Amino acid sequence: MSQQSLIEIPTLTQNDNQIQVHKDKPIKLSKQSSLDHLSVHSIKSGLTYIRDSWKSGMAQAILNMPFHLTIGSSSGCNASVGITTAFIAAFTNGFFSGSNHSIYMPSWVVIGLNYQLVKTYGVEVMPWITIIVGIQIYIAGLLKWHHLSDFIPVYVIEGFLLGIASLFFFSYSDYMFGLTDNHSNRGVELYSSYYDMFKSFSERGDINYFIGAWCVFLFLQMGRIFFRQFPWIFITTLTGLTLGIVYPTEKCLRSAYGEVTIYFNFIEYDGPKFHPDFQVVSHIITQAIPITLFILIQNQFCARAGQSLSGVKCDYDQEIQCVSTANILSGIFGGLPCCASSRMYILDIKLRKTNQWSSILNAFSILFFYGIFSKVFMDIPFYIISGQLLYMIINIPPWHYYVNLYRTQRKLILFYIFCIAWLCVNYGAIQSTLIGSMHALIIFAQKMSLPSAEVMTNQKEGVYQINLRDTNLHEFEEECNDIPPNLEGTYTVYRFNGALNYINIKGHIDQIKELAKTDIFILSFRYVCVIDFQAIDSLAIIIDNMRKNSTQVYVTGLHPGMLEQLSENNIFKEYFINENHMFHQIDKLPQQ
């Protein structure tokens, strides 16, 4: 009927061509719906997004530029590879991202792994590694492994943010003194401690650069406090460009990274060729696994952080497809592994009014600043760059969240956050988050290990009660039907509540052992919702020991399917065969 009414809508004056166009409209709509995940649907919408997003896109290109350069050179390649990867990643992210607040760039957490691979096989291995990483991420996305990040508590993410802010501060502190120690000596241990490093910086560095860096930071921070909507970062950048032209200095980006530009080195077409044997291929596939793991963790943590701090929803499935596509394209065009490494909440952008066009504009800004006009932008003095980095680093951690924890007397959580940040600085960002997540899992397991059960006994002495539902024996029997009729002697009813698993089964067994011995012991599974094989095996052992000690054991309240699950254990299977009168299976679930 609905199709008939749609056909009758056109008037009698319409010709057949108009009717045919009307029939084709649903097909056109279906084609558009398949592209709903893309950012741009028309020129008009694109112009609107450009107007709303140009500030955030260009500002991110300026702020992240030192990271792009450092990652490229520290990975064993060169700074131009980092810039090229940033352009490819940002452009891909603009069309396929699962969030409105992601900025893609080369992954800084895998610099050490990249460097070791380049040291072993040469720079020609990196495009292949990047493609393999993209494929492995896609497979992980099909397996939904990225949803494991949903189980990571917020305080681990906050510790991660504080830790990476500290890492960035220590890594780029040489800029404040006009030095390049942290970026031109990859693989060389120069200082035994951070104290020795800063002592050396103060002895060899320029105090004027140090003062200038903090003045730039204070200017940006005051602008953020009093009028944060204005893009103050552009003022400092234009000032740096002017100073670099009028008063050129050797202490600029060019002295650290040389000449840079964006170039696309199509895999196995331009540049050196990579012709490995089977053993090398198997080795690099194995070596790509930790890179994939690190990128997955970093990408999901940045997504979680951006979502929690900005309030803008992130589609994690779409995000994992985006990072997979970005890595494959980056490898094809000679780039490095990449992922979401920063979020726009640092700039206080109103994210609900922007979309992925900001990332596209970020890509074009990289092309404009460091591709076409790199000779000018690479002359910006270190103290300008350092002041901008200080501004970003200090505003990465959510300080209001820490203050709220302190005010609400959650000082232990605050202590966990600082511990994770300390681990991040000393052992690495991913390692610290894995340790923090493991600690959270242990705390969760401890809380889940507390057994929930109800106990009923007809003994007058030595009664052990846990969450007793009813003290009236007849009502208990009528309600539950867990006590077989005509029982003689003392008995205990132990009714499990909730889930039975490897976490809480030990607590149940300890409670059963503490109960006073009776002639009959009744195990009720009436209110068990989930049970795993390890819990079944542990229960089977305790039941077998009871029977050997002349205690009659009854099993009641078995739900449909639970009998089959218990029978997978040989002790339970033998029990059900030989003592079929001592267990009871119910036909339906209890009424809630």
Helix content: 55-70%
Shape call: elongated
Taking all Cα atoms into account, the compactness measure Rg is 32 Å
* Structure annotation, total helices: 24
Strand content: 5-15%
Instruction: Name the structural class.
Output: alpha/beta
Q: Give the terminus-to-terminus CA distance.
A: 43 Å
User: What is the total tally of β strands?
Assistant: 7
What low-confidence regions span 5 or more consecutive residues with pLDDT below 50?
Answer: 1-39, 344-354, 462-479, 586-592
Largest sheet report: 5 strands, mixed
Mean pLDDT: 77
Total domain units: 3
Widest sheet: strand order? 3-4-5-6-7
Domain STAS: 493-592
Main location: membrane
Transmembrane segments: 125-145, 151-170, 207-226, 232-249, 357-374, 380-401, 413-430
Membrane topology: Multi-pass membrane protein
Sequence-ordered SSE layout with sheet pairings:
Elements lengths: L1 H6 L8 H18 L9 H32 L4 H18 L5 E5 L4 H11 L4 H17 L11 H18 L22 H11 L2 H20 L5 H15 L6 H5 L20 H33 L5 H17 L5 E6 L13 H16 L1 H4 L4 H13 L4 H9 L3 H17 L1 H20 L4 E5 L15 H8 L10 E10 L4 H10 L5 E12 L1 H16 L3 E7 L3 H5 L3 H9 L4 E3 L7
Helix pairs in contact: 3-4, 3-14, 4-13, 4-14, 6-12, 6-13, 7-16, 7-18, 7-19, 9-16, 12-13, 18-19
What's this entry about, in short?
The chain is an alpha/beta fold. The chain has helices spanning 2-7, 16-33, 43-74, 79-96, 111-121, 126-142, 154-171, 194-204, 207-226, 232-246, 253-257, 278-310, 316-332, 357-372, 374-377, 382-394, 399-407, 411-427, 429-448, 473-480, 505-514, 533-548, 562-566, 570-578; strands spanning 102-106, 338-343, 453-457, 491-500, 520-531, 552-558, 583-585.
